[in-house]
Each structure stands twice: as C-alpha cells, then as structure tokens.
Amino acid sequence: MENLGIDWKLLVAQLINFGVFFVIFKKFVAKPFSRFLSEEKKHEEERAKVMEKAKVMEEALFEKEREWKKKMLRESETSLKRAKELGEKLKKEIIESAHKEAEQVLVKARNQTEEERESLYREVKNRVSELSMFIVTHALNDYLTQEAREKITAYILKNLTKDLDSYENKPTS
Amino acid sequence: MKINPRLKEELKAYLKNRLRHDPRQVVIVSSYKLNGKELDNIKNEIAVLKNAQVVNEVDPSLMAGIILRFDSKMIDLSLGGELFQLQKRIHEST
Q1: Are the beta carbons of B30 and B62 closer than 8 angstroms?
Q2: Is B52 within 8 Å of chain A by CB?
Q3: DSSP code of B46?
Q4: Is A145 helix (H, G, I), strand (E, B) or coil?
Q5: Are B24 and B70 in contact (CB under 8 A)?
Q6: Cβ within 8 Å of residue A169, ≥6 positions away
Q7: Closest Cβ opposite residue B83 in set A122, A137, A157
Q8: How does pLDDT run across B17-72, given as a tens digit for each residue?
Q9: CA distance to partner chain B, nearest, from residue A103 (Å)
Q10: ipTM (interface pTM)
C-alpha cells in the first residue's frame, strides 16, 4: 500500500477529519440550514397563500366595483328618465294653466267690454233724453203764448181723471 | 230724550185745535198770475181748496198748469212736471 502512495495515517486522519467535519457539519450546519430551508419554504408557502387570498379579495373587490358601477348607471338612467317625465308633466301643466288663464283674461275682457258698451249706451240714451227734454222745454217756453198756457191749464184741471193723491209729492224740475 | 207725557198730550190738543180753527193755507203756483175767475174754477174742481186760504205764486218754469202746496203735501199738475216725469220714465227704461 505504501508503494501506491497511500498513507494510512493520513487516510485515517483524513477519515477522522472527515468524520469530525461530517458530525460538526451535520450538527451545526446541516440541521440549522435545513431548518432554515424548511422555514423559508414554509414562509414561501404562507406568502403564496396570502397572495392567493389577496388575489381572491382583489377579484371580489373588482367584481363588487363593477356591480356597483352597473347599479349606479342603472339608477342614474332611472333618475334621468324620471326627471324627464316630471319635466314633461310640469311643462304640460304650465301650458294648460297658461291657456286657462289666457281664456279667463279673454272672458273677463269680453265681459268688461260688454259692460262698458252697455254703460256707454245707457249714458248716450240719457244724454239724448236730457237734450230732447231741454229742447222741448225751451221750445215750449218760447212757443207757448199766454192764451195757450191758460187753455192748457184749464184743460189739465178739467181732465183730472185720477185721485189728487196720485199726483202728490212728485218733484218738479 | 224722554218728553213728559202730559206735555205731549197738551201739545197734541193745541195743534188739533189750531188745525180745526185756523183756515188751511194753500199755495197755488202757476206760470202766470191767475185771475179771480180762474181761481174760482180751480176751487170748484179741487175739493181741498174749499174753505182754504189761497195764495197764488208765479213760476214761469211751469209753462202751463199749476202746483198745489198745502200742509206737507205738494200736488203737481203742471206741464213742466209732466215733462220731468216723462224724462224720469225714459231714464228708468234705460
């Protein structure tokens, strides 16, 4: 064996060295290292789970947001439709009310015109009668002679057909 | 204001007595001065003028006819009055 260049002492020392190294390595390096690796693996797995959860939550949130947007859109369309209908209704009511008022004003104006016409007609008639009486009175005053007055007075007295009381307290001009 | 009832009665009696004894005064308003004959004719036609004291007033606005005034009454038999009544009827008819 010495001829092969193998030193038994060295080999044994190397083996012992290796063994010691192996033990030390196993005890102080391998175990903590493997523990570290398993812990890292565990952490990694937990992170993956958390990511998964977060992803699921994010999707759920996105879904909620989409639904919420749809709902808002629907509600806004409904509100807009209702507002339009209300606006149309108000517009109709205002127009109807304006028509009614216009008709009332027209009727009132017509009645007023009619009343004024009647009043004017009455006034004209009164004026004409007053003027006629004035003309007749003055004409008679100028035309009637003393003889005519006497004859008329005698005629009135002769033809008293009603009771005197029926002529009572009538005011003169 | 309350009047003494005895005073009231005495006043009534006095006025009745005056009315009975004093002659009634009648005012005849005409458009011209009436002569005696015309006044007599009027007294004959109208009973209220009998035994009354007649006073004749002239008012040319009557045109013709007469107005009698006695006590609180006024009786219009004038042409002016008739024309006025006609005017009033025309007014009322409008």
Answers
A1: yes
A2: no
A3: -
A4: coil
A5: yes
A6: B73, B74, B75
A7: A137
A8: 877 777 678 899 998 888 888 888 888 877 777 778 888 999 888 888 889 888 78
A9: 31
A10: 0.70
Please give the DSSP secondary-structure letter assigned to residue A13: H
Structure token pair of residue A73: 């859109």
* Cβ under 8 Å to B: A residues 22-51: none
Residues of B in contact with A125 (CB under 8 A): 90, 94
Of the candidates B15, B14, B55, the one whose C-alpha atom is nearest the C-alpha of residue B33 is B55
Question: CB of A124 within 8 Å of any CB in chain B?
Answer: no
Q: pTM (2 decimals)?
A: 0.51
The C-alpha of B4 sits at a distance from chain A's nearest C-alpha, in angstroms, of 34
> Are B30 and B57 a contacting pair, CB within 8 Å?
yes
Please answer whether residues B94 and A125 qualify as being in contact, where contact means their C-beta atoms are separated by less than 8 angstroms.
Answer: yes
Mutate to test the interface with B, among A145, A157, A158, A159 (most CBs of B within 10 A): A157
Q: Are strands B65-70 and B73-78 parallel, antiparallel or unpaired?
A: antiparallel
CA angle A163, B67, A161 (to 5 degrees): 25
A53 touches chain B (CB under 8 A): no
Between strands B65-70 and B52-58, the pairing is unpaired
Residues A20-56: tens digit of each pLDDT: 999 998 888 888 899 999 999 999 999 999 999 999 9
The answer to whether the CB of B66 falls within 8 A of the CB of B38 is no
Q: Residue B38: its chain A contacts at CB < 8 A?
A: 150, 153-154
Quote the CA–CA distance of B3 and B12 in Å, as a whole number. 13
Residue type (1 letter), A43: H
- Which regions of B37-92 does DSSP assign to beta strands (E)? 52-58, 65-70, 73-78
